[in-house]
Amino acid sequence: MFPPLAYLQWIKGRPAAAEHDLGSSDLRRLAADDPDEPVPPRLRGLSPPTGDALLRERVAAEYKIDESNVLLTAGATHGGFLACATAAALARERGADAEADGGDPADAVAPDDAGGPQPCALVEKPGYEPLVETPRGLGSRVARFCRPEPTVALDPERVGAAAPDLAGPLAHVTVTNRHNPTGVLTDRETLAETAEATAQHGGYLLVDEVYAPYTVGDGEAGTAFGGPTGAGLPATVTVGSLTKFHGLGGLRIGWITGPEAFVERARQVEQHVPALAAPSVALARRFFAHRDDLVADARDHCRRNHDLLASFLDARADLDGVVHPGSPFAYLEHERTDGDAMSAAAWDAGVLVVPGRFFGMDDGVRVSLGRAPAECEAALAAFGRVLDDL
């Protein structure tokens, strides 16, 4: 049911092996050091939190929502899995109830039984492979809706038009914000309109927000870590983590937000899989104790890398693409070759960039500036030499 994920198999080991890493999208400031040291370099030496605020309280306060709307998870991947599984379970139960209402009440399938029609997931295209394969592995039928080029904007009308054609009850519509791999950012109003279109067909809007904090200004008022969020919107579930913007992937700290009934059902689903570890929770509380300084540092890192990538693209007449405001990653196409050839040539020269085929965009590559700005500047120079020789 759960096939190998082509992108994750391809990327494994490459960031460490590459001389120049333009593939990793998390903002890593320091290289990993002693593997037996449990405290990440970014948190080392910082004082522990004062007071007794729980981690769930801190996350809820970040989004200005109630604690009952937050479930802590072992990273964003775990959060996405729980969100998909929960939405699928609710869709099955809803479909079973609808079938029973239209027929003999004795034929009703109880929520705990394995009955009910096959739920459907509607996932953005182009998009990140696990967002397609995870619901499929959980037994949902997956359909796609397009975010059309060149803008790749999220269009609520496209979601509303695609939902009625599904072969079963709609479990969820899945989008990324920022969009992966292009970096397009969607505002809260558009997310709200998309959630409304989804709710009209009984499903939840699932927003993967791991890249939403990638902004270069102070951010919008009332948003998490400075970026727009769908948290608190009706029929909306968001996934976030400390991995990408904060460079703390080793902690495996993430969360989902959603309506209280959805989060409560997700707690029941969570009982079937491992949960997050107490040491990670303690270190995440340390992060929140120094939240303002660490977010400001991440914001500066993001701004500097965005400026480097934007300047690089401006100087290359052979590249086509857009570095969206605030984004340190972008999808770029070359005038003389496709994404696989560009990525292969770069790899031969010690430069890691990700072929767009892993996102359904064969003509280009995703270029991500996650490392320290000085490292990224050297990596872009090396990548430029590769492009000169194509």
UniProtKB/TrEMBL annotation:
Residues 19-51, 95-118 are annotated as: Disordered. It comes from the Archaea. It holds the Pfam family Aminotran_1_2. Residues 19-32 have a biased composition (Basic and acidic residues). Residues 105-116 have a biased composition (Low complexity). InterPro entries: Aminotransferase_I/II_large, NHTrfase_class1_PyrdxlP-BS, PyrdxlP-dep_Trfase, PyrdxlP-dep_Trfase_major, PyrdxlP-dep_Trfase_small. Residues 122-382 form the Aminotransferase class I/classII large domain. Its cofactor is pyridoxal 5'-phosphate. One of its GO terms (molecular function) is transaminase activity. Keywords: Aminotransferase, Transferase. PANTHER family: AMINOTRANSFERASE FUNCTION, HYPOTHETICAL (EUROFUNG). This is Aminotransferase. It comes from Halobaculum gomorrense.
